[in-house]
């Protein structure tokens, strides 16, 4: 935190969006650093630690994935996360490998493209700098169940087909944040732009042999049975869990970005 | 003597406890223990894209074989005017052909291209081990992974991706073949080719133009829009057809990636002299159609005795003529009329009269996107021609002698566009004279929209030396109103 310049910038605020960040790192926030307050609840994830009901308490989440521009600002005040100085154990050889130089992003993207080829360690450092954290899988999946109108759209075939199409689109990381529709929670780009890091991405163990994972886990079988909806629902989530299962914390991947979350301070409530 | 030996072996096996059965089985001449074959030297494996296969192993010793395979997710053509995002092993569907011999130790490097969005892995049916390698080969985009295995069972095997959701990874084209040749190699033949069937599920129906996304519900329901050989409609037709010469023996390595459908593989006009049933060691002879399960393969061999074009099909025949499961093998050489005479007599036989047949209209038909410029309309017309007209009128509008009149430089066509529109709309039966030759057959009424009729006729009029007439949808509707 000491590396972050403690100047606060005035940022235009959407009246419907709650503004909570007053952290020192705000100096590098160029686009409005808006977060949405997410009202907690419980749901059955496809595939969780115990495949039973998961509870999520209220929390804040970034409306958009972190952009190139924001990440460049971060690097300017945090040289230790530039690609020339980052330690191998925190970021593999692909870290910002498409960038022109230490502080100039990939020419094929724009300033409001999601920052990608960042490791979990780097994403975490960015969020920490802002007094935030990465969302948990449970939090991320909770808000990602929503479509534009309802909080849990997982049973709608159209919603699942839409997500599958998004996952198939090649090179979507070259896009711009905010181009996908705002969902029920007021969040953009959960599906259709990039995959996103979560704090506990590796807590759900997928061996890579998904058939085996399925057969050996009677809880999962019951869990997916109790969802009782279409197969499509499982497919979209399966792809996310499979992707997360393939990761290690120092991996830096072209189609993988992140956004930050934040706890709700008890004295704010 | 050999038979007698088997007989005694069988007797002994039956007469002693089941505990020893395995031991008896191993002692037979067909059950050499390939796990103990030693390897000599290390070689980089040469992989090939379909329909080519790498050189036979011949007499070489078992060796350490380095296999490098890159996974690439890419958009390419599924059919004329139809695009699709394929997930591939080595950039092709099916993936690169891997050729090994029994006893080889394969060191497999699987690379997931950085632009890919998904993690992948590989399950090779030739592998003895958990997941066929899948448990050891799960790899994120921008990373590579290495694992090794020894091939101990000769045969032709499928490999495929087994990452969740497995059906989608296979359904997008992630499969291929790995051949394990026996010691000394397969018997020598003149031509070898690699053919693999797959079924595809798109949001639009067969023929709908543009980039078509994968349709998971259709895949779950097993309602394929495309069933194709080598990843696209027409991958093995026209100038991409397989070739051989009269007198040669052809060997096809045929696989079926699925994900759902079982193939009734057949070559029209040929009989398979030998089929390595299911790609294993059992050889059947004189086979007309061989069943290839999803996730299975077969080796078929036949000597080609007469020239001509032989059609490879899935004999679940609507797949061949309506969904794309059709390829060609073109044989060049001298005719042998004692084997096949060609047509010796022809005439008209119409017991039910010459009434015009109509194809049933599709009540759920969706309007096509509107083609605006002349070029776009000609392109759209070409796609319709390729689907609807080409079978009779032929690729260059040349028609078929004595059966279907030509559309190229056709006086009949150029004389009267109104009549041409009416012919497509209503069909045509009875004698017509085209370019001085008489034709007497039946063309069915075509169920096309006015815009489609306009486009296909504009394509025909603007091709092959015709008079470049521009037929519009308004003209078609006018003809419909005043036939």
What does it look like?
The complex is a heterodimer of chains A (269) and B (483). In chain A, 26% of the residues lie in helices and 8% in strands. A 3-stranded antiparallel beta sheet of chain A has the order 1-4-7, with no helix packed on it. A two-stranded antiparallel sheet of chain A has the order 2-3. Chain A is built from 7 helices and 7 strands; from the N terminus they run ββββααααβαααββ. Chain A starts with 34 loop residues before the first strand and ends in a 6-residue tail after the last strand. Chain B is of the alpha/beta class and 483 residues long. Chain B is built from 11 helices and 23 strands. Chain B has helices at 2-15, 21-27, 166-171, 216-221, 318-322, 374-388, 390-393, 411-415, 417-426, 450-461, 473-481, and strands at 42-44, 64-79, 82-89, 98-101, 105-112, 123-124, 143-150, 155-160, 175-181, 191-200, 210-211, 226-229, 242-245, 249-258, 263-268, 272-276, 283-287, 289-292, 296-303, 308-314, 326-332, 428-434, 437-443. In chain B, the strands form 5 sheets. In chain B, strands 1, 2, 3, 5, 7 and 11 form a 6-stranded mixed beta sheet that branches. In chain B, a hairpin with a 2-residue loop joins strand 22 (428-434) and strand 23 (437-443). Chain B is globular. Chain B starts with a helix and ends with a helix. Mean pLDDT of chain B is 88; it is low at 1-29. Chain A binds chain B through residues 94, 157, 160-161, 164-165, 167-172, 195, 206-213, 230-232, 234-235, 238-239, 241-243, 245-248, 251-256, and chain B through 73-75, 85, 114-119, 121, 123, 130-131, 134-143, 162-166, 168, 172, 203, 213-217, 220.
């Amino acid at each position: 935190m000491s590396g972050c310049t403690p100047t606060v910038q005035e940022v235009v605020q959407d009246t419907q969006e709650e503004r909570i960040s007053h952290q020192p790192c705000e100096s590098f926030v160029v686009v409005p650093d808006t977060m949405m307050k997410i009202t907690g609840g419980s749901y059955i994830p496809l595939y969780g630690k115990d495949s039973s009901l998961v509870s999520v308490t209220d929390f804040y989440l970034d409306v958009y994935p972190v952009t190139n521009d924001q990440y460049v600002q971060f690097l300017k005040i945090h040289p230790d996360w530039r690609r020339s100085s980052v330690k191998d154990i925190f970021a593999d050889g692909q870290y910002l490998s498409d960038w022109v130089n230490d502080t100039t992003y990939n020419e094929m993207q724009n300033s409001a493209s999601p920052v990608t080829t960042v490791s979990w360690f780097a994403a975490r450092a960015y969020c920490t700098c802002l007094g935030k954290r990465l969302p948990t899988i449970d939090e991320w999946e909770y808000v990602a169940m929503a479509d534009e109108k309802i909080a849990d759209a997982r049973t709608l075939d159209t919603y699942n087909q839409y997500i599958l199409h998004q996952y198939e689109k090649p090179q979507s990381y070259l896009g711009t944040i905010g181009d996908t529709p705002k969902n029920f929670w007021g969040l953009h780009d959960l599906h259709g732009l990039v995959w996103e890091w979560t704090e506990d991405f590796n807590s759900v163990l997928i061996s890579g042999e998904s058939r085996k994972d399925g057969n050996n886990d009677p809880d999962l079988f019951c869990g997916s049975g109790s969802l009782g909806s279409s197969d499509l629902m499982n497919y979209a989530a399966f792809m996310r869990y499979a992707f997360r299962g393939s990761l290690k914390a120092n991996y830096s991947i072209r189609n993988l970005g992140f956004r930050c979350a934040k706890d709700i301070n008890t004295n704010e409530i | 003597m050999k038979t007698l030996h088997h007989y005694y072996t069988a007797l002994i096996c039956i007469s002693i406890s089941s505990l020893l059965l395995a031991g008896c089985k191993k002692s037979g001449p067909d059950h050499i223990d390939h796990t103990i074959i030693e390897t000599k030297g290390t070689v980089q494996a040469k992989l090939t894209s379909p329909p080519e296969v790498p050189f036979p192993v011949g007499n070489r010793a078992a060796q350490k074989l380095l296999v490098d395979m890159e996974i690439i997710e890419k958009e390419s053509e599924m059919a004329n005017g139809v695009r699709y995002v394929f997930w591939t092993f080595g950039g092709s569907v099916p993936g690169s052909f891997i050729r090994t011999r029994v006893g080889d130790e394969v060191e497999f490097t699987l690379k997931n291209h950085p632009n890919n969005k998904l993690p992948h892995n590989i399950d090779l049916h030739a592998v003895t081990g958990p997941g066929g390698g899948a448990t050891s080969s799960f790899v994120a985009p921008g990373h590579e992974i290495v694992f090794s295995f020894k091939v101990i069972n000769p045969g032709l095997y499928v490999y495929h991706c087994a990452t969740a959701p497995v059906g989608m990874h296979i359904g997008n084209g992630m499969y291929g073949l790995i051949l394990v040749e026996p010691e000394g190699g397969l018997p020598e033949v003149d031509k070898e080719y690699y053919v693999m069937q797959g079924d595809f599920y798109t949001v639009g129906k067969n023929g709908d133009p543009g980039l078509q996304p994968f349709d998971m519900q259709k895949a779950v329901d097993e309602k394929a829009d495309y069933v194709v050989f080598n990843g696209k409609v027409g991958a093995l037709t026209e100038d991409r057809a397989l070739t051989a010469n009269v007198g040669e023996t052809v060997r096809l390595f045929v696989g079926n990636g699925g994900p759902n459908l079982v193939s009734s593989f057949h070559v029209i006009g040929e009989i398979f002299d030998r089929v390595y049933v299911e790609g294993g060691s059992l050889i059947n002879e004189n086979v007309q159609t061989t069943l290839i399960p999803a996730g299975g393969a077969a080796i078929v061999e036949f000597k080609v005795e007469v020239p001509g074009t032989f059609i490879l099909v899935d004999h679940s025949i609507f797949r061949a003529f309506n969904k794309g499961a059709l390829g060609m093998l073109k044989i060049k050489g001298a005719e042998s009329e004692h084997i096949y005479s060609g047509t010796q007599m022809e005439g008209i036989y119409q017991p039910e009269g010459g009434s015009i047949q109509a194809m049933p209209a599709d009540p759920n038909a969706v309007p096509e996107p509107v083609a605006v410029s002349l070029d776009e309309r000609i392109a759209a017309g070409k796609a319709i021609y390729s689907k609807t007209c080409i079978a009779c009128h032929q690729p260059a509008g040349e028609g078929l002698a004595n059966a279907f009149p030509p559309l190229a430089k056709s006086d009949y066509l150029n004389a009267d566009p109104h009549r041409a529109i009416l012919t497509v709309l209503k069909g045509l039966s009875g004698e017509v004279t085209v370019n001085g030759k008489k034709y007497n057959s039946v063309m069915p009424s075509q169920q096309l929209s006015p815009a489609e009729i306009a486009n296909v006729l504009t394509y025909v009029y603007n091709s092959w030396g015709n008079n470049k007439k521009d037929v519009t949808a308004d003209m078609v509707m006018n003809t419909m109103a005043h036939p």
